[in-house]
Design goal:
By secondary structure, this protein is mostly beta strands. Among the domains are: about 10-195, no CATH class; about 355-620, no CATH class. The strands form two sheets. The protein has a 26-stranded antiparallel barrel. Strands 1, 2, 3, 4, 5, 6, 7, 8, 9, 10, 11 and 12 form a twelve-stranded antiparallel sheet that branches.
Length: about 725
């Protein structure tokens, strides 16, 4: 039998192809044509029908269709497509089907045996689908999920069955009719109509991921956030939270967040209002806000607002761990070698051991720094002006003291290297101070002083490298400092927490504020040793102390008192993700004044940070007993899907954990579950702790703001 010859190409074929924009081309050229056809063979039948077979691809306005066979009817302007069919509509939509009847521009038609994949996350399977207006896909008898289904007929962890789903490509939204939510194919919820944004949408009006929370204080409840976009640059989120228990405890809380971006800055406000059974004072609430704006002349404005109706509200609802509230506004400007800043802060303490009437609540400070190069003068010149003032609410003598302080500092410094590598650093300073004290009869109202100072430092870094690649650094350091007598007798409001560490071992001052000056003649001595190994080990040890001509008036807990300070010793260790920092202050008799140790370890599955602090009793540092505290914070990736977290802060003197928390997270390709628990005390005077627990379940692609719970693993491939 002789095979039937295929129809020959004719002039009509060429005219047909070009008149309807159908021409064989490469995929690179296809994107610029109205409609482009690529196929192994193209034939024409009956003068109006075009048939393409074998690796058929059609391109139109960013859409791409792949099929086995395609029939184009000129009279009806339709495409009949035989599958398997793959239709890509932009970067976020993929349609797989068995057969389709489509318009020539692929904007309308009917698709059989269809599966829609959105943003590589949400899959929708349907018996049939109809495309309308190039915008809507109307799917019937549907199943939607974000779980990977590797085997036909396999039951996903969760899915939504709906009689009808409409996908609006223009609004990027999915509408469900008669939706039934199932877990392991067991119906757990029914909704006659719901809608959700596409997975790629990050800002769409609607409900966000809900969560449940349980606490001893108010019972068990549900938190249901609702997001409202306000144009392109602002949004508002409401989160009602209602909880109760069988004992009559309850809360009715409404949380809110407002954000807005401007051309020159941004603002964000977070707050809540509650009616609960915890306190009998009626409504409770808080408001936190912050913002930043770029002003003319390279100036930056920042502000912060913090308000709480009562001292325990923030901790009761786990909104914040802050124990002092700050309302502040500040300006800063950095130009070339100069920097200026000013801040005004209003404080409100939430601590049980602080009285807001007798602590400084209104604080203002300003500072200007400039570095200059003077022609003919080696080194550099620094000029600094500092101002600080604070007020107390109380007007009583001594406890209601108010202060204002100012300082102008002019300094010169230079560094040179001489001889066998000795680094010499010299500087000289002149410091002018003024101080005004009111409502404290123990001190003069106005005082002023001019204090000169100078220093000379020398250090000799010596390095050695062994045959095995290990290198060593040994560096002795010495500094002689003289500060003239400081002739101001002032209360200590601004320098109550002097520190002694490697940051100020070699330097002029350990007092952080303006109301104290470390004067007199002294020598700062230190020795640093470090070892570097090619295997990654880095070990360092630094030790030093301060030797004075006259005794210094520092409190015992600082380790700086007397003519000789405590020995400072710090160990630093780094090795392949592990870090250790341990600072110790040791007296001449071997007794410890302070130890601060911090250990961190990070690898692909484990992350741990641990800290320990021990310090002797010192009333000047507001410590009426020895301090011994341990903190832990870490996470462990148990498997690819399970992760555990923990946090602990324990007072080893009182033998109680002031705060302890745990977290457990499960995530896969279609769901994320977060379980958390916290144990804490409402205040330092409480004898019994409170407990709270939280549970959040996030479905990939549904209200997660375009973020998958877990990346696709490709385990089906």
């Amino acid at each position: 039998m002789t095979p039937r010859p295929a129809p020959r190409p004719s002039r009509f074929l060429a005219a047909l192809l070009f008149s309807f924009g159908l021409a064989a081309a490469s995929p690179a050229d296809a994107q610029n044509a109205p409609v482009t056809l690529v196929a192994d063979s193209v034939i024409v039948e009956s003068e109006t029908v075009l048939i393409a077979e074998g690796s058929v691809e059609v391109f139109s306005e960013g859409r791409r269709l792949s099929a086995t066979r395609l029939v184009y009817d000129q009279e009806s302007d339709t495409l009949s497509v035989e599958g398997p069919i793959t239709l890509t509509d932009g970067p976020d939509t993929l349609v797989v089907a068995d057969a389709a009847e489509l318009s020539a521009d692929l904007r309308d038609g009917i698709i059989e045996g269809v599966r829609v994949i959105l943003d590589q996350q949400v899959q929708i399977a349907a018996s049939s689908a109809q495309r309308q207006q190039g915008r809507f896909t109307d799917l019937r008898d549907t199943v939607a999920t974000s779980c990977e289904v590797c085997t036909p007929g396999e039951t996903p962890l969760w899915h939504i069955r709906a009689r009808r789903i409409i996908h609006d490509e223009e609004r990027k939204r999915i509408y469900f009719e008669h939706a039934q939510f199932r877990i392991l194919d067991i119906p757990v919820a029914y909704l006659p109509a719901i809608s959700t944004p596409e997975p790629s949408v990050r800002r769409a009006r609607g409900f966000l991921v809900p969560s449940t929370k349980t606490s001893d204080l108010y019972g068990t409840g549900l938190r249901l956030p609702y997001f409202v976009p306000l144009g392109e640059h602002a949004d508002l989120t409401f989160a009602p939270f209602v909880a109760t228990d069988l004992n009559g405890s309850y809360t009715r809380t409404l949380e809110a967040r407002y954000r807005q971006a401007f051309t020159s800055g941004n603002i964000e406000f977070n707050g809540a209002i509650s009616e609960d059974s915890i306190e009998d004072d009626g409504m409770r609430g808080y408001l936190f806000g912050e913002g930043r704006f770029d002003l003319p002349y390279q100036t930056t404005l920042t502000f912060g607002i913090q308000f709480a109706s009562d001292d325990a509200y923030l901790s009761d609802y786990d909104f914040s761990d802050a124990d002092r509230l700050e309302n502040r506004i500040g300006l800063s400007r950095i130009v070339g070698d100069s920097r200026a800043e000013a801040n005004v802060i209003v404080y409100h303490s939430l601590r049980d051991d602080e009285d807001n009437n007798t602590i400084p609540t209104l604080v203002g400070d300003a500072r200007y720094d400039e570095r200059m190069q003077v022609p003919g003068l080696p080194g550099f010149v620094d000029f600094t002006v500092i101002g600080q003032g604070h007020r107390r609410i109380s007007s009583e003598d001594i406890v209601g003291r108010d202060m204002a302080q100012g300082r102008a500092l002019l300094s010169w410094g230079n560094a040179v290297t001489v001889g066998p590598g000795i680094r010499l650093t010299a500087d000289a300073r002149a410091m002018a101070d003024v101080q005004h004290v009111v409502e404290d009869s123990r001190y003069e109202s106005y005082q002023a002083a001019l204090t000169p100072s100078m220093s000379l430092a020398a250090n000799l870094p010596m390095k050695k490298t062994g045959a095995n690649g290990v290198s060593y650094l040994l560096e002795p350091m010495a500094q002689v400092v003289w500060v003239g007598p400081y002739d101001i007798d002032s209360p200590n409001d601004d320098s109550t927490q002097p520190a002694f560490d490697l940051g100020n071992l070699m330097g002029y001052q350990r007092y952080p504020g303006l109301d104290r000056v470390e004067d007199g003649l002294r020598a700062n001595l230190a020795l640093r040793w470090q070892r570097f190994a090619p295997s990654g080990w880095t070990v360092g040890l630094t030790t030093g102390r301060v030797v004075r001509a006259e005794s210094a008036d520092f409190s015992p807990g600082t380790g700086l008192g007397g003519t000789r300070s405590d020995w400072l010793a710090q160990v630093d260790l780094d090795y392949k993700g592990m870090t250790l920092r341990s600072l110790t202050l040791i007296g001449d008799e071997g007794d410890l004044t302070l130890n601060e140790t911090r250990v961190g370890y990070v690898n692909t599955r484990f992350d741990l940070t641990a800290g320990y602090v021990w310090q002797i009793e010192d009333e000047a540092l507001n410590q009426d007993e020895d301090l011994s505290e341990l903190t832990l914070d870490g996470s462990y990736q148990i498997t690819d899907r399970w992760e555990a977290q923990m946090a602990l802060r324990r007072d080893l003197i009182a033998e109680r954990s002031t705060r302890a928390g745990f977290g457990l997270t499960y995530r896969n390709d279609c769901v994320r579950v977060d379980l958390s628990g916290v144990r804490r005390f409402r205040s330092t005077e409480d004898a019994e702790p409170t407990y709270s627990y939280g549970l959040t379940v996030s479905l990939t692609g549904f209200g997660t703001g375009g973020t998958a719970s877990s990346p696709r693993t490709g385990r089906c491939s």
